[in-house]
Amino acid sequence: MARLADYFVLVAFGPHPRGSGEGQGQILQRFPEKDWEDNPFPQGIELFCQPSGWQLCPERNPPTFFVAVLTDINSERHYCACLTFWEPAEPTQEAVCLEDAAGREEEADEGGSGRLSPGTSGPPGQLFAPKTLVLVSRLDHVEVFRNSLGLIYTIHVEGLNVGLETVVGNLLTCIIPLAGGSQLDSVEDGVRTISLGAGDRQVIQTPLTDSLPISRCSVALLFRQLGITNVLSLFCAALTEHKVLFLSRSYQRLSDACRGLLALLFPLRYSFTYVPILPAQLLEVLSTPTPFIIGVNAAFQAETQELLDVIVADLDGGTVTVPECVHIPPLPEPLQSQTHSVLSMVLDPELELADLAFPTPTTPSSSLKMQDKELRAVFLRLFAQLLQGYRWCLHMVRIHPEPVIRFHKAAFLGQRGLVEDDFLMKVLEGMAFAGFVSERGVPYRPTDLFDELVAHEVARMRADESHPQRVLRHVKELAEQLYKNENPYPAVAMHKVQRPGEASHLRRAPRPFPRLDEGMVQWIVDQATAKMQGAPPAVKAERRTTVPSGPPMTAILERSSGLHGNSARRLEVVRNCISYVFEGKMLEAKKLLPAVLRALKGRAARRCLAQELHLHVQQNRAVLDHQQFDFVVRMMNCCLQDCTSLDEHGIAAALLPLVTAFCRKLSPGVTQFAYSCVQEHVVWSTPQFWEAMFYGDVQTHIRALYLEPAEDRDPSQGWEEPAEGERSALDVASEQRRLWPMLSREKQQELVQKEESTVFSQAIHYANRMSYLLLPLDSSKSRLLRERAGLGDLESASNSLVTSSMAGSVAESYDTESGFEDAETCDVAGAVVRFINRFVDKVCTESGVTSDHLKGLHVMVPDIVQMHIETLEAVHRESKRLPPIQKPKLLRPHLLPGEECVLDGLRVYLLPDGREEGSGGSGGGPAVLPAEGAVFLTTYRVIFTGMPTDPLVGEQVVVRSFPVAALTKEKRISVLTPVDQIPQDGLHLRSCTFQLLKMAFDEEVGSEKAELFRKQLHKLRYPLDIRSTFAFTLGSGHMPGRPPRATKDKGPSLRTLSRNLVKNAKKTMGRQHVTRKKYNPPSYEHRGQPPEDQEDAISVSEELEPGTLTPASALKPSDRMTMSSLVERACCRDYQRLGLGTLSSSLSRAKSEPFRISPVNRMYAICRSYPGLLIVPQSVQDNALQRVSRCYRQNRFPVVCWRSGRSKAVLLRSGGLHGKGVVGLFKAQNTPSPGQSQADSSSLEQEKYLQAVVSSMPRYADASGRNTLSGFSSAHMGGHVPSPRARVTTLSNPMAASASRRTAPRGKWGSVRASGRSGGLSGDVGSRLAGRDMLGPPQANGAPPDPGFLRPQRAALYIIGDKAQLKGVRPDPLQQWELVPIEVFEARQVKTSFKKLLKACVPGCQALESGPTSFLRSLEDSEWLTQIHKLLQVSVLVVELLDSGSSVLVSLEDGWDITTQVVSLVQLLSDPFYRTLEGFRLLVEKEWLSFGHRFSHRGAHTLAGQSSGFTPVFLQFLDCVHQVHLQFPMEFEFSPFYLKFLGYHHVSRRFRTFLLDSDYERIEQGLLYEEKGERKGPQACRSVWEYVDRLSKRTPVFYNYMYAPEDTEVLRPYSNVSNLKVWDFYTEETLAQGPPYDWELAQVSPEPPEEERPDGGAPQSRRRVVWPCYDSRPRAQPDAISRLLEELQRLETELGRPPERWKDNWDRVKAAQRLEGRPDGRGTPSSLLVSSVPHHRRSLGVYLQEGPVGSTLSLSLDSDQSSGSTTSSSRQAARRSTSTLYSQFQTAESENRSYEGTLYKKGAFMKPWKARWFVLDKTKHQLRYYDHRMDTECKGVIDLAEVEAVVSGTPTMGAPKTVDEKAFFDVKTTRRVYNFCAQDVPSAQQWVDQIQSCLSDA
Fold first, then answer.
1. Closest by alpha carbon to 1490, among 1056, 1054, 1126, 1165?
2. What is the DSSP letter of 977?
3. Residue 1115 pLDDT > 70, yes or no?
4. Which one of 456, 1113, 1490, 1799 has the fewest CB atoms closer than 10 angstroms to its CB?
């Protein structure tokens, strides 16, 4: 029985002590005046009576009622029912309040309760003061409190004739029964009718079960106010210990909401701060760091705004606000969705019927009270599903004197399959769950609804999951029980309580609330107390039972473990392997081991392993031999590697007894146990694991204490499930608790003693076990402490209670250290002792071990550890004597000439990453990764070489490497070694050549070595200076083998040139540039010869008359030399080819040419990033260019870079515009001529310049006199309608504008040749570009509809500019150019996109979802193909414009990234020359190198560029070329491999070609001339082009056999993303050799075919296994033509004749094909018949006849039309074809040398004299020359058939000084004059005679 009310209090308004306008509450009276002994009076009640503060009001408010909840220090809740009414204020109160009237009004405005209109009662100035009646109780009977206080108020207001003292006295003495009415004898005991002596009657029903909360309607109201999702959020937030704040204007609603939320949490109890109504004065409580559930009046919402980590639920607005920093974990699926749907069925039953055609008559929805119980039932079911089987994870640590119970969290999570679940993890770690375990874990206690549900209904709930109606039925059944608990006797609920009349509060009260007579009330209370003492004490009869455990656990959601689902077959493999090990069949075991290690990824196989190993342990010991021991340890390590620190699947727990059982004898008396080899796992250093293990073992032993011997089992088998019919520890404990009261005191003491000694002995046992697993074998090494997470941060890892034992003092010194970073000073034994002491402290304190025992343990622990260390020393000493396991020999990598090792091999494991290749995967083949080997760091590359760890794969060498310069990401990782499963440090290296090295260092590699490797790698990746890169350091030690010739007068002038050049450039450029080194260009002998095929025969002036290029004498000597070097450059050669102007002084300028070559930038003074010679309009003076350049970014003003041979339109490039300039020009408002509007001279110059460009073009004779591109108004540009002739075209969305590619009258779409030539030009670029296609729908693939696209009236010049830069442009009607603004991406977007592309193509780890979808998704996310699409789209647009006769200026960004990409692509698509090998080289040299693409900056080649990162602009261009190559395979002379080769080497820093940012920088570094062919020894290629030339002579790897161009063809590729393919450069990999782009390395001889191996009598076969995941398929299986050429070479070698070059053979075969094709009347080549029969020699090349078993092969060879090509490449071909009958042999010895010797030869125009070795060949009728006598490669040929005369010559500038004039002679050919000089006059005469005789012989 209990008191209904403890205290009755009267609180009134009183003045504030500090005199502020606000008042405060004062307790007028309280009854009883003395505190009850069992329940002291709660403090601070005054604050809670008026939570918003005590204030006077101008009108009389109606009475209010609410219940506040106070929690005392013992966590007891006190319910304070407050009824407040208003009385006229007394004068003193008014005076107080009037002191600060303004303040009062403000407060009143914010106010608490609702106000009536002022003046309804009392005189005009009357104020009213609040007064509150408070009832304090520990029972929660809200309605009774409301009625009782209401009755007291009614008596006062209505003036009833009843004594208030009597009513209050009766209220305080009213006694009601506690919960459990059903267990009492009669209804009268469960239901109490009370009367307070005023003619009233109330019925109080106590709930049946004390533990179930009372909710009335609060849960239903909460759902109505906030909705399902919000309430679920709050539910999860409260469970996971977040702060929850309710806001409402109603206090009662706040109380109800908090009560409802608490009711939902049942069976867990909320144990943090719980204040349903928080007074205003205590708002700072909200800043508390602990979780809480608090309600606050909505008036104080502003004060809650700055709370950062509080979830705010606004009950009035129905919202829940979760701050960004708070993450509320949701319920695990499928429970979240199931709960949601059941809640919606309960709250909105009509939802199911809403869609029915014939809805059934609706059943009336439940009453609010019933709905409340149904909602609670849903959550009760939810908890039963969540915590199902929790009793199987309880550990009974002690039974007597009090039960001590621990919960095995890891096992619970593991068996439920919810280890990863954030929500359940947090719930189990929370305080509420700890309370749940201690309260409900007890095995013998009263049970309630939840116990029944979790034990017996789980199966039903699982079966009902898919049947909503059955779920609903179950919910309603539970709701009935909950309702019955609250209202056990609904029939007797009859109340009769007087209430005040309507609006009684407005009537003038007769008097204030009277002061009650304390004595009278006290007398009534005393009377009742005396009566109670006489009565027998009411004992609550509890019906205690054994709590049912229910069925064992099942996973919430059966998750198949995918790849490692353990089939019976896998478990069979594990069992077989173990039996082989113990039977000594080691070879069989070795074969099975890899399969076993793979199977052990699965849980069942790991359990199976533990069970199988248990069978081989007798008497706790199993002695093995060395091999068996190694096998067992490896399998154990593999098992443990996947164990988390929680060990949720009990694997480590199962292996723990085994690691102390398996051992091997090292020597007499020295035994090594398995534990010394399996220590490196994080689980051993996790305190929670040891605690769970300890409690589990204690439970087993305590259970054994009380079982009969027959029932007991071997405790080591404790990890198995108990068999049927056996009693669990909980059952035993329940029985013991039931018997406990009946035992004698002695017996009780004895049991307590036994249990304590059991716990104590287990503690000693575990101290031993822990020392076994924590002390390393070599205790001198402290690496264990550094590398194992556990011991370093034990404080954070353990959730131990701090106890006041001596461990505290032991640990003090430890606490002051910062982890165990310092290897030398830390002490292994000390750390282990501290770890064990902490563990012992915690478990013994929790298990109730006496302090004496605990002290004894603390003394023993250091001795145990010390003893174990001594044992280990012997073991360590002996184990070192064992023969070491043979580690594989380190394989040395093959290095390039000049490449040196920086760090010798560090032993590492190469681990598989996210690509399938290494692991077999879809490509097929075995798993060659993980591989064991070494990583080498050289000056050029990072190289891994090794062999697969899987012995079944075989002895395959695995190579993975990449250039150091390509490294983009390096990060440390911690990984497990594949063999021993030991955690090791590792590195993760990713390169922009699409390689990834994921390595784990072997244990022999110390962290110092690993750190050194990282430092050296970083130093090589980012050298301080470009001169420190591999390309510069390579071969820098030796000079060429020819003696230098003294040339006194040339040197100074060249040096002067260099100095002046740099000085002038510095003067004129604003950008600062630091010269690190003074540059002395090499002397003439070392310069000048173009590499390989660029013989002197193709001189610069070939296309022009011999004299046109000679600079005028006006140039100063140093300038002349500048000119001579500049004329050599690629740009100039190309300008000559295109006929783009002449280089002459401004005085003698040829007026006929529209353009000229201007040397204005020869000193790089105008624009440092441009080449020295530029093409500008003829009419523009050089001095004007300086002013024009100021209008453009980086001074990159518009220059011509290409001219169409057919339409004569030109392509110009420049940087983007500055603010002034054309944009400013166009912004001029309505001016008749631009000249008047612009004062700025540079803008005028710029306008003139563009005008000059326009006038240099073929004239347009349009009828309209003007031309236009865009047909649609572009008002969106400037906000006005432009005049008819003003034009701005917009490419607003390149993505959408798939129709921006047009069918022009000539050219190709895709790889289909254009069949018909379409007619006239019509259409509209602007609207096309903007995606508004006016000509009908485009064809598939993004090709436009068929009619041509441009109207006859076109602008003379289109300026393609950046849309952002041209915003608001107002075009001027007088201009003849038109703007095409487009949106382009920036370099940083390319960088970001590339990073994502790298991750997609070379993922660092396995994707979560297998299959191609994840790759495609990440590829799409990278947006790489979208950028390629935009580039191709813009390029095709420019091609169309040029082809239609309009010129185009590309003016984007700074003019060196996207501009370069676009102009290069345009030239490639428009001009077939650039699709040859020579042309493509010229294109790259001209547009990328000379025009200053910033290779060093974009490639982050030096330390300075490290921050900017790698931006692959050039790679993106190559990708675009690759896309075009795919669509037009017959149009390119070079193969796709050539593009990959350039893609690899433009970042590799092997060659100097792509190293610097501009020609200016190359001159400064002394590279510009050197590249031109200063030839070092044959091994050191400085230039990538030189390397390509050399390689091309030896192998056709760069050549495209399908090359059959149509000379006039303009290509128009499809550019839709759907037409683009991912470049295989990004995805392919060959693990056999590494990247194939360093040809010398790729050619290292492979293993000999089987026939050459000397294995006696083995069948000879030439078959070879090719693994797609390992070998290079193209190398293993070359294409047919390469195969034939190889075969040809082999046959020639066999016949003893020198092999011919492949190109000569190929050219001859093509020529023969052409001749044979003609008689058939076809121009196409006939098929080439091939076979391996002996071949017949023909006059025109080799022709192979079809043999008996021949194969036919059709080749696309050149058709006849292509021979009419005018490009220089075809001229070269023609020149080569003159010697078709005499192929050039490779070896010098076999050549015909009629006469030979040294001659000086003058190079082509402006080139120096050079000594060469000349050979006169009378057989082949040619004069060949070589670099020196021993050179085998011919550098050039003069065909004697072309010689017209041999005459004496005269010395020219730069000729050798010491030679007689008569030693000079000239050889005139039909094409040019060659100048020679012999060493003396006789030898000159000898040469002339020899040549003459050769000519006369012919």
1. 1126
2. -
3. no
4. 1113
Interacting residues of 481 by C-beta distance below 8 A, sequence separation 6+ = 449
Name the one residue in this structure whose structure tokens are 């096998």: 631
For 483, how many CA atoms within 13 A lie in the half-sphere containing its CB?
A: 18
Q: Which of 10, 186, 7 is nearest to 85 (CA)?
A: 10
Q: Which two tokens stand for residue 322?
A: 């979760």
Residue 411 token pair: 């096992």
| Cβ–Cβ < 8 Å for 1227, 1367 | no
For tokens 């979830």, the residue is 311
Q: How far is CA 637 from CA 717, 978, 1171, in A?
A: 21, 10, 65
- What letter would DSSP give residue 1322? -
pTM of the predicted protein model: 0.54
Q: Give the span between the Cα atoms of 387 and 553, in whole angstroms.
A: 9
Query: Inter-axis angle of helices 806-816 and 828-846, to 10 degrees?
Result: 140
Contact 93, 512 (CB under 8 A): no
The label of the residue with tokens 């075209």 reads: 1289
Per-residue HEC secondary structure of 336-384 comes to HHHHHHHHHHHHCHHHHHCCCCCCCCCCCCCCHHHHHHHHHHHHHHHHH
Identify the pLDDT of residue 651: 85
Residue 1852: exposed, middle, or buried by beta-carbon count in 10 A (0-12, 13-18, 19+)? exposed
- Give 64's strand partners: 84
Alpha carbon distance 301, 310 (integer Å)? 13
Report the alpha-carbon angle 625-626-627, nearest 5: 95
DSSP state letter for 1652: G
For residues 1337 and 1248, the answer to whether their CB atoms sit within 8 Å is no
Residue in this structure with the two tokens 């604050």, named with its chain if needed: 47
Predicted local distance difference test score (pLDDT) of residue 1262: 39
* The one-letter amino acid at 367: S
- C-alpha 516/C-alpha 31 separation (Å) is 10
Nearest CA-CA partner of 1325 in 1447, 1226, 1466, 1438 = 1438
With CA atoms as reference, report the closest residue to 493 among 286, 768, 202, 757. Answer: 202
Chain CA centroid to CA 1782, Å: 61
For residue 297, give the 3-state DSSP assignment. strand
- Six-digit token pair at 387? 């915590």
Q: What is the bridge-based pairing of β-strands 292-297 and 319-321?
A: unpaired
pLDDT tens sequence across 363-397: 777 788 899 999 999 999 999 999 988 988 998 88
Using DSSP bridges, classify how beta strands 1308-1309 and 1611-1612 pair: parallel, antiparallel or unpaired: parallel
**Beta strand extents in 1172-1231 (DSSP E only):** 1174-1177, 1199-1203, 1210-1214
Residue written as token pair 């209220």: 171
pLDDT in tens, 400-411: 888 899 998 888
Q: Which of 978, 967, 988 shows the shortest CA–CA distance to 932?
A: 978
- If one counts every other C-beta atom within 10 angstroms of the C-beta of residue 551, the result is 15
1411/1826 Cα distance (integer angstroms): 57
Radius of gyration of the chain (CA): 48
Please state, in angstroms and rounded to a whole number, the distance separating the CA atoms of residues 1155 and 1140: 6
Give 1766's contacts (C-beta < 8 A, 6+ positions apart).
Answer: none
Sign of dihedral through CA atoms 298, 300, 306, 311?
negative
Other CB atoms within a 10 A radius of the CB of residue 254 amount to 26
- Grouping H, G, I as helix, E, B as strand and the rest as coil, residue 935 is strand
Digit-coded pLDDT (tens) for 587-630: 888 888 888 888 888 888 888 988 888 888 877 788 888 888 88
Return the residue matching tokens 């580039």. 1431
Give the helix/strand (H/E) hosting 931. strand 931-938
Distance CA(1542)–CA(1555), nearest Å, equals 13
CA torsion through residues 1336, 1337, 1342, 1347, sign: negative
Alpha helices (H) in 782-938, listed in sequence order: 783-787, 789-792, 794-797, 806-816, 828-846, 851-881
